Amino acid sequence: MISAENSTRQAGSPVVVTGASQRFGRNTVLEAIDLAVAPGEVVALLGPSGCGKTTLLRLLAGLSRPTTGSIHIGDQLVADASSGAFVPPERRSIGMVFQDYALWPHMTVAQNVGFPLEMQNIGRAERDTRIAGALEMVGLGHVADRQPGTLSGGQQQRVALARAIVSRPRLVLFDEPLSNLDRELRESLVVDIAALLRKLGMTAVYVTHDHGEAFAIADRVAILHSGNILQIDAPEQLVGRPTSPQVVDFLKLGLVLPAEVNNGELVIGGGAHRLSPPAGLVNGSRSGDLFLPRSALMASGVNNGARNGNAISGTVVHSMFRGDGYAVQMRFDQNIAIEMFSATRLGDGTVHDLDISWDRAFWYPHDTSHTERTHNA
Ligand SMILES: Nc1ncnc2c1ncn2[C@@H]1O[C@H](COP(=O)(O)OP(=O)(O)OP(=O)(O)O)[C@@H](O)[C@H]1O
Fold first, then answer.
1. How many whole angstroms separate alpha carbon 46 and alpha carbon 56?
2. What's the whole-model pTM score?
3. 46 lines ligand 1 (CB under 6 A)
4. Fold type of domain 15-240
């Protein structure tokens, strides 16, 4: 159990990234990223493999230089592509926690945790007090004299966390820190890390590809896709008001159906489905993506062949028992499927109508003259 009850609250620094891009040869991995992290704020970078999360973290750490743009940590300009200014990692006052713990096996836990303080030439007595304090905070005061190799994975990651915070850095960076741990341990440790960061008021950037982890730890989550930040918002806002179909798709929030608008009707899949949206939802555009969150869809029974503009029919791929009901995979088109919850098993291959609550639907117009997404609430 991590405890921060006796620590003094300290504020981390703000971080401002302006127009930062990263190119490797002809490959642009990050495109003109703007990101502002407030003092004491925890921001998660969430996105699929290869979207540029670690690359952005490495820029913040000073492990690589941006091709364009600049980065401030607090008042310090730590990287600026146009002037060539660059502050190396050891002079940025940052703590880092990696996926593989990166502890020194030949040192004791206390020596590992005290290493950043030694680098800062902090005297022995002060060092010992701070090491003991940091180990206490991560609930590992009793293993100070052990070697990391004799500890469990979860304990080793707590040692790495103690080492990252012991020198009271301005910013703590996490790169998929829980990926090597089993699910139960991940869930408990993420809650503990979040509590510790909040107690200490530390600014943190946390890279993960796990939605649950990002939502549990972050004040705001940035969704990265192909080197761009698609949306950065509080978890509730991301789920409740996604600003693009890509965000919906990545977070698996429901059904995204590309549609043409014809005489007020939404024509989907070349006419396979025809829906009658309420006035105002599609707002005069000719085509777009209709987003129906799971909460906007309710199974209303086996389709009887009749056309209903307020329901969409899908074919059950399979129903899987999940203890409190069934996870049902439904297919609407060759490439469009979602997983839904049903209290009863729905027969494989049967066609069901899903009633649409239009007040929960979103519309993302394709037409450039209608770039705002609309929501019918
Ligand atoms: N030093 C490098 N030279 C060339 N390409 C690189 C270099 N570092 C990263 N890349 C490329 O940049 C892209 C983004 O990599 P990055 O590690 O930032 O992704 P990520 O989102 O962290 O992915 P993952 O979740 O798999 O770690 C990848 O296509 C990767 O191959």
1. 11
2. 0.88
3. no
4. Rossmann fold (3.40.50)
